[in-house]
């Protein structure tokens, strides 16, 4: 991914600056908003990547969209515009969130289910994930009806697939091998 190393450096510098200013939590909220907005808006993402659109236009659009952001977040946008690296803003935001969570000892667990998690089930998943990792865990629920039932739990690099679709595929492989 082009700019990944630059995004990591900017995210680390931003976390350090925000921590010094006692604004790391507020900046984390801003970075989640920025990452989600860029991921969900193809137009915004394309504008940031476009070499044809002038930096001044990109800056005015970003400042208009994120006008309620922390001053540290706004200074990041300024710095990225100045250094002609505004195209990595979404990656910086995502990396910042990851670094912030690591600094707080929080691990992100992704749970893919066929239907939305109930509160009771989410508490059970949180408890199990905390037991496995020894860290505080935040759960992100992704709904994918193609798994039919069960769940797929991913924490960091570890994945546990207890989906009905996976079990059916295993049965299919066993029958075709015999």
UniProtKB/TrEMBL annotation:
Subcellular location per the Swiss-Prot or TrEMBL entry: Cell membrane; Membrane
Membrane topology category: Peripheral membrane protein
InterPro entries named in the record: ATP_synth_OSCP/delta_N_sf, ATPase_OSCP/d_CS, ATPase_OSCP/dsu
The keyword Membrane appears for this protein: yes
Pfam families: OSCP
Keywords: ATP synthesis, Cell membrane, CF(1), Hydrogen ion transport, Ion transport, Membrane, Transport
Entry similarity comment: Belongs to the ATPase delta chain family.
Functional description taken from the UniProt entry: This protein is part of the stalk that links CF(0) to CF(1). It either transmits conformational changes from CF(0) to CF(1) or is implicated in proton conduction.
Protein's name according to its UniProt entry: ATP synthase subunit delta
Native species: Flaviramulus aquimarinus
Gene from which this protein is expressed: atpH
């Amino acid at each position: 991914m082009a700019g990944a190393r630059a995004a990591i450096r900017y995210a680390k510098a931003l976390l350090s600056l925000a921590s010094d200013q006692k604004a790391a939590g507020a900046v984390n909220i801003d970075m989640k908003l920025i990452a989600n907005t860029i991921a969900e808006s193809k137009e915004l993402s394309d504008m940031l990547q476009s070499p044809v659109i002038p930096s001044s236009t990109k800056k005015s659009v970003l400042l208009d969209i994120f006008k309620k952001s922390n001053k540290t977040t706004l200074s990041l946008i300024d710095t990225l515009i100045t250094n002609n690296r505004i195209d990595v803003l979404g990656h910086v935001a995502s990396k910042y969130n990851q670094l912030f969570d690591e600094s707080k000892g929080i691990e992100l667990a992704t749970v893919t289910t066929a239907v939305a998690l109930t509160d009771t089930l989410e508490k059970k998943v949180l408890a199990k994930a905390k037991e496995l990792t020894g860290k505080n865990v935040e759960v992100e629920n992704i709904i994918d009806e193609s798994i039919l039932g069960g769940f797929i739990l991913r924490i960091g690099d570890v994945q546990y697939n207890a989906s009905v679709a996976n079990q059916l595929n295993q049965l299919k492989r066993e029958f075709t091998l015999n």
